[in-house]
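In response to the reviewer comment on reproducibility (Comment 2.3), we provide here a single inverse folding case reported in full, input and output, so that an independent group could reproduce the run without further information from us. The structure tokens appear first.
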């Protein structure tokens, strides 16, 4: 009686986790990804991130205000501080 055992070897993922990146870095990466057709390849080692991966990680992060929103928030804080 002969039995065949099939072994599968899963190649380790050498990519740095997207959780280690700052939110602003992820926003820059996703802009680069859009410009390059949906794939961001930061290294020449064959490592790449797909648009969906980056987008799903960004969806877990809190909102970062853009320049106009940040200006409005600062002005509102200053106004509230003066009116105390």
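Designed residues, in position order:
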């Amino acid at each position: 009686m002969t039995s065949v055992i099939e072994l599968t070897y899963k190649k380790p993922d050498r990519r740095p986790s997207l959780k280690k990146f700052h939110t602003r870095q992820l926003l820059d990466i996703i802009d680069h990804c859009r410009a390059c057709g949906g794939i961001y390849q930061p290294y020449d080692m064959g490592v790449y991130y797909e648009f969906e991966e980056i987008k799903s990680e960004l969806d877990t992060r809190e909102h970062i205000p853009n320049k106009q929103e940040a200006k409005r928030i600062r002005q509102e804080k200053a106004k509230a501080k003066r009116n105390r």
